[in-house]
Design a protein that fits this description.
Elements lengths: L4 H6 L7 E4 L3 E5 L9 E5 L11 H22 L3 E5 L15 E6 L18 H10 L5
Antiparallel strand pairs: 1-2, 2-3, 3-5, 4-5
The chain binds guanosine-5'-monophosphate (5GP) and zinc ion (ZN).
């Protein structure tokens, strides 16, 4: 049994601000965002790195990532966005359960990979979750 926080979020043993889920993937807000609305898309099953994920799961991952990106654009109106996945410690992977980051970007927002600069105040996590959830069309 792997002790993995993202497996626990996927099985609802650990809390998260969940934006969307189906049988293969789960989407939730990053607890320590680069910018507010920074979102993570994960396979529900545990795969450490991207190349290990089966094609049928990747199909859902990429389509859901696209739909959630649209919801982030519609709700938060960022100027742009980054989508990335860190694989392996050398690439900056901290949680060894593969995930896609969707990061809303603003002109001159001072983006830094590490340390991720922000945290949510009380109720803010849910407020951002509500804003994005309202715009999801899947
Ligand atoms: P990595 O460096 O592995 O690509 O990114 C891991 C991400 O997971 C980081 O952005 C970090 O803030 C986020 N994270 C770590 N633990 C938790 C958690 O328990 N809940 C949520 N929602 N995000 C987490
Ligand atoms: Zn896991």
């Amino acid at each position: 049994m792997i002790d993995c926080i993202f497996c626990k979020i996927a099985s609802k043993e650990a809390p998260a601000e969940v934006l969307f889920e189906n049988d293969k993937v789960m989407v939730f807000l990053d607890i320590n965002p680069i910018n507010y609305g920074h979102t993570l898309v994960i396979p529900k099953d545990h795969y450490k790195e991207f190349h290990e994920i089966p094609d049928e799961v990747n199909q859902d991952l990429i389509v859901v990532t696209s739909k959630i990106t649209k919801a982030i654009l519609d709700s938060l109106k960022p100027h742009g966005y980054n989508i990335f996945t860190n694989n392996g410690r050398s690439a900056g992977q901290a949680i060894m359960h593969c995930h896609f980051h969707i990061v809303p970007r603003y002109l001159n927002d001072g983006f830094k990979f590490r340390p991720y600069p922000k945290s949510y105040k009380k109720d803010e996590l849910k407020q951002y979750g509500n804003l994005i959830r309202e715009k999801i069309r899947i």
